[in-house]
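Whether sequence alone determines local backbone shape is best considered at the level of individual chains. The sequence in question and its structure tokens are set out directly beneath this paragraph.

***
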Amino acid sequence: RVAMCVGKCSRIVGPCLLVLGTLSVVANILLLLPSGASKYLVEGHISKHAKAMPGIWGGGIIVLLAATHITAVGWRCTGCSDCGTRSNAFISAVLSKLAVLGAAACFVLSGVGLTNGPLCSYNASKHGHGHEILWGYPFLDAGDQEPDIRAENYILDRRTWSICLEPEGVVAWNVVLFSLLMLISAAEMVLASLQILNGCLGCLCGFCEGK
């Protein structure tokens, strides 16, 4: 019964991680294209945390590698052919640990990106820099407030979003996508942690359901 549960769990966790990893990659790609325009990426006017691409390498590629192995092993061992299930279970546990680390990195970097706010052009006169239009992080540079207070102010007070002149709608774009990356990476950490336990049980019992 334990082996059966281990096999079924892998066939659920694997595809779920595949979907989440793919969504993470897509979300990060969209972060590189604010308002759907590529010119800001070409010009280098993209948030540094978006350019770090945590959703691609952290919540994406690393998680997808683990998910592919977990899914393949879970389905290949259905009905039980002696396919080296204990060694595969060990490999899935190791890959799942890497997936937890990748998802955690994505969660942290996305959280920092959300806190700092987007890179955009804004009227610097409101920040004591004359009347010129500058590219920068207006919410990060907003006064002498503490970072958590700044984040709370700009995320909850949509009236402040108009400070960003270009790209159009970049504040909402960043808030939605960085928040989505945090939710995705949190779910990935939970599922990958579950698979670590599942892989450890697989090392003892195997995935084979026909034993």
Q: What stands out?
A: The mean pLDDT is 83.
